[in-house]
Amino acid sequence: MVYIPDDTDFSTFRHQCESHEGWNSQYNKAGVTVWSQMQETKTVQKIKDGQCCGINFTGPAKQPGAF
After folding, report:
1. In what order do the strands lie in the sheet with 46-49?
2. Which contacts of 56-64 are long-range, i.e. CB under 8 A and separated by 24 or more positions?
3. What are the sequence ranges of the domains in the chain?
4. Rounded to whole angstroms, how far apart are CA atoms 27 and 49?
5. How many angstroms separate the CA atoms of 14 and 19, rounded?
6. pTM of this structure
7. CA 29 remoteness from chain centre
8. What's the 3-state SS for the chain?
9. Shortest CA distance to 44 belongs to which of 54, 29, 56?
10. Residue 14, phi then psi, degrees to nearest 5
11. What whole-number distance in Å separates Cα of residue 46 and Cα of residue 16?
12. Under a CB-based contact definition with an 8 Å cutoff, are residues 39 and 45 in contact?
């Protein structure tokens, strides 16, 4: 099954990119900052960087980019 994101999904994604609330800075050097966020499950890790907004969803199958 494929899910097509709607405007609400993009709005939520943008808010996660722009907000630092709930995120922990893990790396900050040479103008690059990497943030991580604790999740309820240990099988998912969310990260973003400070140069561009990318959230990497990684599960047990180690499939980056799964949304």
Report:
1. 24-29, 32-37, 46-49
2. none
3. 39-67
4. 9
5. 9
6. 0.49
7. 19
8. CCCCCCHHHHHHHHHHHHCCCCCEEEEEECCEEEEEECCCCCCCEEEEECCCCCCCCECCCCCCCCC
9. 56
10. -65, -40
11. 10
12. yes
CB-CB neighbours of 48 under 10 Å: 20
Contact at 8 Å (CB) between 35 and 26? yes
Give the integer Cα–Cα distance in Å for 35 and 50.
8
Residue 54 CB coordination number (10 Å)? 11
Token digits for 8? 């609400």
Residues of the chain with pLDDT under 70: 42, 44, 50-67
| 45 vs 52: CA distance, rounded Å | 18
